[in-house]
Design goal:
Layout (H helix, E strand, L loop, with lengths): L2 E5 L3 E2 L5 E8 L9 E7 L6 E7 L4 E3 L7 E6 L4 E6 L8 E7 L5 E2 L3 E5 L2
Parallel strand pairs: 2-11
Antiparallel strand pairs: 1-3, 3-8, 4-5, 4-9, 5-6, 7-8, 9-10, 9-11
Length: 116
């Protein structure tokens, strides 16, 4: 059974960098041919795909967030990490990590609030 768990600070100040980690279990993040995603949902809005890291380590980003987003991984810990720089209150959202192009597994989500 694959499990994903997001972790990171719940409160970030404007202009700072948001950093979240997704810890996975039940499978390796290097297994062919899975992609590992970050998705967020601002209050009252729909889901937004932010980016992904592939089994190969290649990364892909939403064009609207590309300039501020970085996704990396630690294969020894089976973790992948999201960094979003220069955050504003509009980045307040529930952040999820998911697996695959069909999002077959999800973390429970973590609330991140951007506020001074």
């Amino acid at each position: 059974q694959v499990q994903l768990q997001e972790s990171g600070p719940g409160l970030v100040k404007p202009s700072q960098t948001l950093s979240l980690t997704c810890t996975t279990s039940g499978g390796s993040i290097t297994t062919n041919y899975y992609y590992w995603n970050w998705i967020r949902q601002p209050p009252g809005k729909g889901l937004e795909w932010m980016g992904a890291i592939a089994y190969s380590g290649s990364t892909y980003y939403s064009p609207s967030l590309k300039s501020r987003t970085s996704i990396s991984r630690d294969t020894s810990k089976n973790q992948f990490t999201l960094q979003l720089s220069s955050v504003t209150p509009e980045d307040t959202a529930v952040y999820y990590c998911t697996r695959g192009v069909s999002y077959d597994y999800w973390g429970q989500g973590t609330q991140v609030t951007v506020s001074s």
